[in-house]
Design goal:
Structural class of chain A: alpha+beta
Strand content of chain A: 25-35%
Strand order of the largest sheet of chain A: 3-7-1-14-11-12-13
Order of helices and strands of chain B: EEHEEEHHHH
CATH architecture of the largest domain in chain A: 2-Layer Sandwich
Largest interface: A-B, 58 and 55 residues
Largest sheet of chain B: 5 strands, mixed
Structural class of chain B: alpha+beta
Radius of gyration of chain B: 16 Å
CATH architecture of the largest domain in chain B: Roll
CATH class of the largest domain in chain A: Alpha Beta
Shape of chain A: globular
Strand order of the largest sheet of chain B: 2-1-5-3-4
Strand content of chain B: 15-25%
Oligomer: heterotrimer
Shape of chain B: globular
Number of helices of chain A: 20
CATH topology of the largest domain in chain B: Ubiquitin-like (UB roll)
Number of strands of chain B: 5
Chains: A alpha+beta (795), B alpha+beta (163), C alpha+beta (290)
Largest sheet of chain A: 7 strands, mixed
Chain lengths: 795, 163, 290
């Protein structure tokens, strides 16, 4: 059932957020803000300084003797109370392996934890860490993605041959023939640097046992409360009914906090062991060393196409850096499968072959960071579109239009079996080109790329964004331990107010407002009477929680379905009270009334009192007490949002700096719930994409040392770096999902990386410079420019 | 070495006296000793600005100060901005312009913006952006923060004009 | 991360500070604004056993001009220097440098002398001191000595002070009517420089450029005078051809480092580019002014 006919139109409105007031006053309670008790233990982790080594010994005598230190434990101790982490991926070509929560005999990346200190305060914990003396026997290191597969490369896991944790292959029938039919072939290698989500709030958790010591309330700065709860139960052997996970305010997640981490399991296990609250707050250096990394991809692509620019066949090899361990719950298969499967994007590519690999290296494990492989795969295919255009002398926008799936041909199942239900690939491109004044720019550019000391270019990214994946979507990626569904529990309370328990967890997306908008509209309630509760496993029904742009889709769907059940009951009771048929009852603005007889109305409170047997009316015959419904929603494979980003840049010829002069987005996330929040997601994602393309990179040296594990040397964009996006919207409601919503959380970053990279490539194309790797630091571009001019001069 | 020293300061107009270890950071002092949790810690190396407070009327990174160093000073934190019943115009403008998402960096921005508008009641967009380099936001991409600052400036100029 | 424990003193007078420094010698570090020192302490890269805070020594907070020098005391905050009309008039290069130093919150508390003493190779105040041939007054219980900027900055994070000494004051020679520019390039619009050039020139009508002083950061372990570029300019009027020579001259005699932010080749290239930009800005301002 789609939109409620009777509802006050909250969906589609830019309702101001109810989260804001307490956050602005400084009254948000993030993990480090929660009340502390006198007997609280602070954890500190001793991290390996080596990327690959055998642990010879750990001398904790001095640390234990320090006043204020309660204990020091090693991997051997923790193995007695916590099982190792293990990510099982049900795909052929995946090699399963374990990670103990504290390293026992070997360390595999700098930052892997080898011991934990328990202390009175974070200050003493750090003092104790410094006093733990661990002896290592260093081993050879495989730190680099491109050499880790070599036959003589040191192995990260002895049983994983050539460090290939995962490989997958795919080829359409008749591929070779189709490829051979392409009149032209272009080849390119795209390389993306390693980046990380870097939320301003690092991770942390607080495990509070009860006085008996066999149950736990576990607070964590996480995006996945239910997934965490189940995993904790499995790892520490405490039954799920005795674990409650509560998510406080979370200071940014971006996918980084959708992984389950060893520190969480250690904290939970120790809380039960010591029967005292155990708290752990990460510092920024630890955050950069141990919170999942992302990208560090290599795409080798070949496209065969005709002289009309239409692609006949594409072959790609995708290489992703898994780091030292397959992270949980998504596994290191996430990026290679994501990249390989999404690469064809909004295009009619029917002949496709890929090989995808996740390679282990002695570096921090990789995981889900906003965009997940899509920035890389669209950098690749969109980069090819531009190259085809340059090769054939056809405008790159035109090349795209010739290859695009026309809207009239949707729904469309792409070559790897992903279904695109609705979309606006062509319309969004045309609209974005119009808004940015593309033709005028090209005309001006034709007179000369080089103006006022800068090379000017324009770059397009036309992409599909996978969102709201349900169980089928996760099973297709070999992930069985993520349910795929989400849920909503709606309850009308005795006073007629409505509580909505969602299975999601928010970290800035405004769920408390947006879900209230949906429910209020569906129920015909006043939005001020609707309260959304998230992030508490004791209150919220189970679900897959929040990541991968799923909440609007899965939460919206669940909320609508639960609302339908609740409103039906309310109408039955109201009909009974108003002596009308439930079909004649309309719910609006917090009242139930009879169609056509507006003065025959009662407030929701009256209905509720009846349902809770708190007045002298009775319920209709056969009706049960209370007004409550839980519904689960498991979307189909996924629903595809789409967008076009166009960046206009200037590249300074002397210093190589890139300025984004204009940035246009036309976005289609189906039915929009709150336009201002959607725009905020896009703008924020673009900022991260700009960072990834121009200035962010985590750099490991050949010994596996992370050279820039601090914010002085890992550069995040500031207010001077990020342009204001000009954002337009198209709404192609999803027909595959309940509610018609599509996700938007990742679109900003997915579009920004290719758009900005393509713009720089376009700006420098006149010089014959090839742009195929990011980040595009000024020094890198400056060298390319000078070399190109130098060889031009020499020629 | 747990030498404890006496420190006195005023925070949001209220006087406090405590005994602290010299190394105890001002950010931790405000948060855990005084229970003013609005000031947040993001890096402890003076880059992200989430910990920004005012020391004697000027913005400062509380993660880079030992509590003992500001003995005798007057500190203002985000909790000192709003009135009981009403948000400060800057806070109100942030709300109306969706200038916060997760809210973690927000208190630091509010302090920076308070200082900016106090010293420059009519800043240009460029001046606003320049001032905002003091703080990093990972959620919003800054556009709405810049808008909010301009909107707040207008409201505050209007109020000043009337008074 | 949290810093390691230390003993703390906050003397109220300069003499008391020097007493403490004499007592503790190498174990002690002076704390003024802390904007450079405390990050290193928080990361436990350095772990001083004793901190002597000068923040209660009001007598060390001063800006004045004496004997043709613009003088800043140890506790002069960077924001004070930034906002001082006297500094703008007498040592404009210092005024130009200040907005580049961190964010407002850093400058409100960070001190000019603190930045000098810290000797970060990418910090702006040391570049100003080197460019203007400042005198650095180093005090100890035993007395005072004056070091030239050249002598003071030894290497990356290393200065020429001995245990028990404190940088009490910096004196910038004044060239009335001089124009200044400080230009940088970084890997984002605002942040630690990859390369920076500090220039001060007296533009003297027919005689062209006089008292040309140019220093660069990011091209070595400490700020370096670009003397070849200075010589190229001295006594000349600026035109396109001269700027080309300046660009080449600025690249001579430097051996820049390579790191993840930029390689030596880029740094050398940018020394030339920024020297030209700094000079062009000064010359342009001077031209506009006439």
């Amino acid at each position: 059932m789609a939109a409620s006919a009777a509802g006050t139109g909250y969906i589609g409105k830019s309702i101001l957020r109810r989260e804001d007031e307490y956050l602005l006053r400084g009254n948000g309670r993030f993990i480090d803000d929660l009340s502390e008790s006198r007997d609280q233990i602070h954890l500190g982790f001793v991290m390996s300084p080596y990327a690959h080594a055998r642990i010879v010994s750990i001398d904790d005598g001095a640390a234990k003797a320090l006043p204020g230190v309660i204990d020091v434990l090693t991997g051997v101790d923790l193995a007695k109370i916590a099982k190792p982490m293990c990510t099982a991926i049900d795909l052929p070509g995946y090699v399963i392996h374990e990670r103990p929560v504290l390293a026992i005999d070997k360390v595999r990346f700098v930052g892997e934890q080898v011991a934990v200190v328990l202390a009175d305060s974070p200050y003493v914990a750090q003092d104790a860490i410094d006093l733990v003396h661990a002896e290592y026997d260093p081993l050879p290191v495989a730190a680099d993605l491109e050499t880790a597969r070599e036959p003589d490369a040191p192995l990260v896991h002895d049983h994983i041959e050539r460090n290939i944790i995962f490989r997958a292959e795919f080829k359409t029938e008749g591929f070779d023939q189709a490829f051979a039919e392409g009149e032209f072939v272009l080849k390119e290698t795209f390389r993306t640097g390693r980046v990380a989500g870097v939320p301003i709030e690092p991770r942390g958790c607080l495990a509070v046992p009860d006085h008996v010591g066999d149950s736990l309330v576990f607070y964590s700065s996480t995006q996945v409360p239910h997934i965490l709860r189940t995993k904790l139960a499995l790892c520490i052997g405490c039954p799920e009914p005795r674990i409650r996970v509560v998510v406080p305010e979370v200071g940014g997640g971006f996918g980084t906090k959708a992984q389950i981490y060893t520190e969480e399991i250690v904290a939970a296990a120790l809380a039960l062991k010591y029967r005292r609250p155990v708290k752990w707050i990460q510092d920024r250096r630890e955050e950069l060393l141990t919170s999942i990394h992302s990208r560090d991809h290599r795409y080798d692509i070949e496209a065969a196409f005709g002289r009309d620019g239409i692609i006949k066949a594409v072959r790609v090899e995708v290489l992703t850096n898994a780091g030292a361990y397959s992270s949980y719950p998504f596994g290191c298969t996430l990026e290679p499968t994501g990249g390989a499967r999404m690469l064809v994007g909004p295009y009619k590519i029917r002949n496709y072959a890929y090989k995808a690999f996740a390679v282990a290296t002695h570096t921090c494990p990789s995981g889900a960071y906003r965009g997940v492989a899509q920035p890389s795969c669209f950098l690749t295919i969109e980069g090819m579109m531009d190259r085809i255009g340059r090769k054939l002398g056809i405008d790159p926008a035109e090349v795209r239009l010739r290859n695009i799936i026309p809207t009239r041909e949707l729904p469309w199942v792409n070559v790897v079996g992903v279904r695109y239900d609705t979309g606006s690939y062509e319309e969004s491109l045309r609209r974005a080109l119009e808004i940015v004044g593309y033709n005028a720019f090209r005309k001006a550019q034709a007179k000369g790329h080089f103006v006022g000391g800068k090379y000017r270019g324009i770059g397009i990214c036309n992409f599909t964004e996978i969102s709201g994946a349900g169980a089928p979507g996760w099973r297709a990626r070999g992930v069985a331990h993520l349910p795929g569904f989400d849920s909503a529990l709606l309850r009308v309370e005795p006073t007629g107010k409505i509580t909505v328990y969602m299975s999601h967890a928010n970290s800035g997306q405004g769920h408390l407002t947006t879900f209230a908008q949906i429910v209020a509209e569906q129920l015909g309630a006043d939005i001020n009477d609707v309260t959304v509760v998230e992030g508490d496993s004791a209150l919220s029904p189970y679900g897959t929680n929040t990541f991968a742009s799923r909440s609007a889709v899965t939460g919206g769907g669940a909320a609508i379905r639960a609302s339908a059940k609740v409103s039906e009951k309310m109408k039955r009771i109201a009909g009974h009270l108003l002596e009308a048929s439930p079909q004649d009852i309309v719910l609006q603005d917090g009242f139930a009334s009879v169609v056509g007889v507006p003065r025959m109305k009662i407030p929701f409170e009256e209905i509720a009192k009846t349902a809770y047997s708190m007045n002298n009316r009775g319920l209709p015959h056969g009706e049960d007490y209370g007004i409550e419904a839980t519904d689960y929603y498991d979307p189909p494979l996924a629903t595809m949002a789409n967008a076009v980003h166009i960046a206009q840049v200037s590249v300074d010829a002397e210093d190589g700096r890139v300025t984004v002069d204009r940035y246009v987005v036309v976005h289609d996330c189906g039915r929009i719930i709150n336009p201002v929040i959607v725009n905020g997601q896009i703008q924020g994602g673009v900022a991260q994409g700009l960072g990834e393309t121009l200035m962010e990179e985590l750099v490991y040296d050949s010994e596996g040392q992370l050279v820039n594990a601090n914010l002085l040397d890992y550069l995040l964009p500031t207010a001077l770096d990020v342009p204001d996006c000009e954002i337009g919207h198209i709404e192609s409601p999803s027909t595959d999902t309940v509610g018609g919503f599509k996700g938007v959380g990742e679109g900003g970053i997915i579009g920004a990386v290719p758009a900005i990279a393509n713009a720089v490539a376009d700006a420098l194309s006149a010089l014959g410079v090839n742009i195929n790797r990011i980040p595009l630091r000024p020094s890198y571009l400056s060298k390319l420019i000078r070399d190109a001019k130098g060889s031009a001069a020499a020629a | 070495m747990s030498q404890k020293l006496n420190v006195r300061m005023k925070v949001n107009g209220k006087a406090y006296e405590r005994q602290v270890e010299p190394r105890y950071l001002l950010a931790d002092f405000l948060r855990h000793e005084l229970g003013l949790k609005g000031t947040h810690i993001g890096c402890e190396h003076g880059v992200c600005g989430a910990c920004t407070v005012m020391i004697d009327g000027r913005t400062a990174r509380s993660c880079l100060h030992f509590a003992i160093t500001v003995d005798g000073a007057e500190i203002t934190t985000v909790e000192g901005l709003a009135r009981e019943d009403k948000l400060h115009p800057i806070q109100q403008a942030f709300h109306e312009n969706h200038a916060l998402q997760c809210g973690y960096c927000t208190p630091g921005f509010l302090m920076t913006v308070t200082e900016l508008l106090c010293r420059n009641p009519d800043p240009s967009t460029d001046e606003i952006r320049r001032a905002l380099v003091n703080n990093i936001c990972r959620c919003t991409g800054y556009a709405n923060i810049v808008k909010a600052v301009a909107a707040a400036a207008e409201v505050m100029r209007g109020a000043a004009g009337r008074s | 991360m949290k810093p390691a424990p230390f003993e703390f003193f906050a003397p109220r007078s300069r003499d008391e500070v020097l007493e403490k420094l004499a007592d503790y010698g190498d174990d002690a570090r002076v704390l003024s604004g802390g904007q450079s020192l405390v990050p290193l302490m928080n990361m436990r890269i350095i772990q001083p056993r004793v901190i002597v805070s000068i923040n209660q020594c009001r007598e060390l907070a001063y800006i004045h001009s004496t004997n043709g020098r613009l003088v800043c005391g140890a506790l002069t905050r960077q924001a004070e220097a930034e906002e001082s009309a006297e500094v703008r008039q007498l040592a404009p290069l210092l005024s130009e440098a200040m907005p580049l130093v961190g964010g407002a919150a850093n400058r409100n508390r960070g001190t000019v002398c603190g930045s000098l003493a810290h000797a970060d190779p990418l910090a702006e105040p040391p570049a100003v001191a080197v460019a203007l041939e400042a005198e650095l007054i180093v005090a100890s219980k035993a007395g005072r000595r004056t070091l030239s900027a050249e002598e003071f900055f030894v290497s990356e994070l290393q200065n020429a002070m001995r245990p028990g000494e404190m940088l009490e004051e910096v004196r910038f020679p004044v060239k009335l009517g001089a124009k200044a520019a400080f230009v940088e390039v970084a890997n984002r619009r605002h942040g630690f420089a990859v390369v920076g050039v500090a220039a001060q020139i007296t533009v003297d009508g027919a005689a062209g450029c006089r008292n040309v002083r140019i220093a660069a950061i990011g091209v070595g372990a400490r700020p370096l005078r670009l003397r070849h570029a200075e010589r190229a300019l001295e006594g000349k009027s600026v035109d396109a051809l001269l700027l080309k020579h300046v660009s080449e001259a600025a690249r001579e005699g430097i051996n820049p480092p390579s790191d993840i932010h930029a390689d030596a080749d880029y740094r050398r290239h940018m020394a030339g580019v920024l020297a030209v930009r700094a000079v062009a800005r000064i010359w342009g301002v001077a031209i506009e002014g006439t």
